[in-house]
Amino acid sequence: MKIERYPSINPKFVQAIGRITIEFAVLEHTLTDGLSLLLILVMQHDAIEIDASTLAKILTAEMSFKIKVDTFGALTRHMIRSRTLDEKLQTALLGRLERQLDTLLKDVASIEEKRNMVTHSLWIRGDSSETAKRIKHRAKRKEGLLLQEENMDLEKLKSIAKSVKQTRHRLDTFITLELFIRLATVRKYRKKQDT
């Protein structure tokens, strides 16, 4: 009789777990693109001999996801606050941008937790043919060894992948429509006012 120490899971679960990993990688890449777009706005200067896209890749290549999120949030907040036209615009438009940013970054951090739960767990056959079991050992100073076990059905894994994808789309929309276009428009308006 063959004993399987780690019984393999149904390929449909492997595919769903892979989808989460892929969607998260695209989300992370979207964050890097967002940083690049912000640097383009900041660094539109003839004396700089490095393009903003290359600079962003250099800056983010070794960053953890959390540090990318923190850097994106800090730089975005700085851009929002430094591009105000007057108090009314700051209160109406840019205050709204900061609230959107806060909500979005909170959601991105939550997605990272879900992705880490999926990616950094051992997956084996579940208690039924319709589930896969996630096992994670953790050692905490105060609690000692902790074992997390959870049976997940395919729909739950697909739901996590869908959440990652939706959050990425929201981040991409925020970067493209809210930041890049609105902040660039404010910059053009300011230049007109200065001439």
Mean pLDDT: 84
Give the assembly state of these chains. single chain
Largest sheet: 3 strands, antiparallel
Classification by helices and strands? alpha+beta
Q: Could you tell me how far the N terminus lies from the C terminus, measured between alpha carbons in angstroms?
A: 85 Å
- Rg estimate, integer Å: 22 Å
Strand percentage, roughly?
5-15%
- Major beta sheet, strand line-up: 1-2-3
Regions with little confidence, pLDDT below 50 for 5+ residues: none
Explain what this protein looks like in three dimensions:
- The chain is 68% helix and 12% strand.
- With 195 residues, it is of the alpha+beta class.
- It has a three-stranded antiparallel β-sheet.
- Helix 1 packs antiparallel against helix 4.
- The N and C termini lie far apart (85 Å).
- The model has no long low-confidence stretch (mean pLDDT 84).
List the helices and strands and how they pair.
Layout: H1 11-42, H2 52-60, H3 65-82, H4 87-119, E1 122-125, E2 131-140, E3 144-153, H5 154-194
Structure keywords:
195 residues; alpha+beta; 3-stranded antiparallel β-sheet; elongated
